[in-house]
Amino acid sequence: MGRTPHLEGDRDSMRTDSTKYTSFTGWIDPPDDVRPALDGDLTCGIAVIGGGMGGMAAALRLAERDQDVVLLEAEFCGYGSASRNGGQIAGAPGGDLRMLSLQSPKKMPVMAKLAEHAGRYVEDLIKTHDIDCDYVANGLVWGAVSPLMMLRVRTQAAILRAFGGGGTVGSREELGLPAGFVGGMRESIGGMLNPGKLARGVRRALLGSSAKVFERTRVSDVRRTGGIVEITTPHGTVRADKVLLATSVYGGEWDITPKNLATPLYVIEIESEPIAPERLAALDWTSRSGIITQHQLMTHYRLTERNTIVCGVRTAQRGRTYPLPDRVPDPGVVRDMGKDLANRFPSLSDVAIERAWGGWIGISPDWLSVAGQVGDNVFYAMACNGHGLCQVPYVTHQLADYIVDGEMPEDLAGIWSDASKYSPSMSLLLQPFVLRAVWGLDRFNDFFNGSRTRARRALRRGRRGGS
């Protein structure tokens, strides 16, 4: 933690020789009170399949509405992407807004408003259930590592404003960003938290409700039988009047899920070892805001309450067949991410990557949130796509109210679909060779835009100023 910084150029990558690889998250340990699996048959009014943030939020809301609700989770609540992400509370749609505005111009104003409401919803969820998850409302910054990328940030910010969203564009000094960045745009809502602690807090609230929760209960099939939905598990069957599929990408295992609803991508998070406070202070990251770059495959960086840096994505790997494997990160990808961290923060190039974890996310057909219904009693939502973790629980919370009341909230109506099958365009686009080509394009641009040189030049200036 207190190492003397190496001289510039000593290392091209942070050390990964002792990195711990895990298939679970690095944010929190597994719970010690996992609920028993379903053993036997039962009936209920509404069954929720999936115990991520979406499934837990829906089941909690249904319990609050005095519904007879059962939740089924294959591992334990909060096991998947609910706790494996970067902990970004976003208040604006993510992704390339230029592409999305051309692809879905009517949906973008809805998404700008929905994203803000989703950010507020999660903030209220934290307060309502008194969840200690290290939340700091310091915004999320769309960061630029070069003047050309800053031009893209300004373009994206103008598109966001045109659709009713908001944010503050500024230089790195104005936004309190590290020296290797040129500037960016800070979203008006949101910040950073520990997603493992958030998921654990929501799980605690759910287990304290009237909902019947069965963990370690993998669903093998979902099908209609007459006027009910029959859910098959290894040791019992649930017969429900209505079902909400809150499984993100994992719903692709069943025929009842709309075809092409989600394209599976495996993404990785890495975390450094604890870093001495004086070394973090030397980065001049005064805002401590989380940063997402404007690469085609974005990279995000954030500081944590335990004085580490967490970095995510940079590359993505395509899932091909179901069931999706429970895997650990590829060491080669982790080394590449360590190289990126050393380039972005050259004064920390001697720091080790302490742990790496990853998980599957689903990309919807239009890269935006979608919710819908199959027949009169099966409902579904796909609401992440790398837009931050807020949209998932917000959409399923609204979906729960719709199931109970039959009245569709405005935000839900804006993303609603009755499709039983979607276009395979996203599945065809996100092929392994395309993802690799996009990664290469990002690295090509990094090489020629001088971002590495800029970060090292800032480091040299800092050393001269401190001598």
UniProtKB/TrEMBL annotation:
It comes from the Bacteria. Gene3D superfamilies: D-Amino Acid Oxidase, subunit A, domain 2, FAD/NAD(P)-binding domain. Residues 1-27 are annotated as: Disordered. It holds the Pfam family DAO. InterPro entries: FAD-dep_OxRdtase, FAD/NAD-bd_sf. One of its GO terms (cellular component) is cytoplasm. Residues 46-401 form the FAD dependent oxidoreductase domain. Residues 1-18 have a biased composition (Basic and acidic residues). This is Probable oxidoreductase.
